[in-house]
Amino acid sequence: MKALKYSRQREAIKDFLAARTDHPTADIIYSHIREDFPNISLGTVYRNLSLLAERGEILKLSCGDNADHFDGCTAPHYHFFCRKCQSVSDLELPDMDIINLAASRKFCGKIEGHTLYFYGICKACNTREKLEEESFSQTNENENFSQNA
Amino acid sequence: MKALKYSRQREAIKDFLAARTDHPTADIIYSHIREDFPNISLGTVYRNLSLLAERGEILKLSCGDNADHFDGCTAPHYHFFCRKCQSVSDLELPDMDIINLAASRKFCGKIEGHTLYFYGICKACNTREKLEEESFSQTNENENFSQNA
DNA sequence: ATAATAACAGTAATTATTATCAATTTTTAT
DNA sequence: ATAAAAATTGATAATAATTACTGTTATTAT
Questions:
Q1: Which of B118, B126, B129 should be substituted to probe chain A, the one whose Cβ sees the most A Cβ atoms within 10 Å?
Q2: Which of A48, A72, A96 is at the close of a domain?
Q3: Mean pLDDT per 10-residue run, chain A (149 residues)?
Q4: Is residue B26 within 8 Å of residue B68, measured between CB atoms?
């Protein structure tokens, strides 16, 4: 694999991702990089994200919300996708290669790895949901009180 | 969830998927259903695939090759994605909900499930690869022989 | 049988992403 | 330091997958 020629834009994209713990999409990255490089084009962002992912310097995450997300941290870990706010968060679990073994026993072919995403409700949405339930049941209590009165 | 009004097109799509073990994309499904319904439109295929998936009558698979695949079998099992021929095959492994438990211990939020895809080289591509290697080394032997002669 | 409405075909619009290309930036060789 | 070579860029066009819109047709309930 041939070395890449340096570019300020690519460096900025890499630094930007390294400084975040969320997992922005290409257009989010674009809108932020634009603050430092007002003339950068979206194509440049896409091209560099692909190059960096290809070389394993960042991770490309396809979690099924049909927009790729990118992760500046390449240490092995998994991801969680919130079905309410669509956010992607890290889940610090070591690589479970035992999963590959289980699959190998059932499959005729070469299993090289797996992609695993968890889904559900993130902490923030969970808290918000509970608050809404509370205020909803309070409303109901008031309604009942009015009817009874 | 309201009941759906019957439609021959939707029935045909469901039957088509039930009869296959591969996991076709919307446009593949479209091209086949067209043999029986020459006037069906691609939008109808997409709409019905979404409806059926929403109701759990089929599965929508997003395996990162940016075209959704569909599976007529909803019994719990996993999938394998061949990075060579991009085919998606079934992997009859029971649902490993132990994975969710491991994740729950490391995550503040509600984990409802996971999506897990295996990747590597499928049986067919693996065989083909070996054949090519063989014929390649034979070619080399011949070349060496010519040079030595 | 008829009215209400869900689903349809056809088509336009949207969204994410990739490709093209002349101009610029970075690297290499002098 | 300078010029030639090569990679990268910005701008824009093109593609691919999917969704939205609209007038017509099929299904269901009365």
A1: B118
A2: A72
A3: 94 98 97 97 98 97 93 97 92 95 96 96 90 72 47
A4: yes
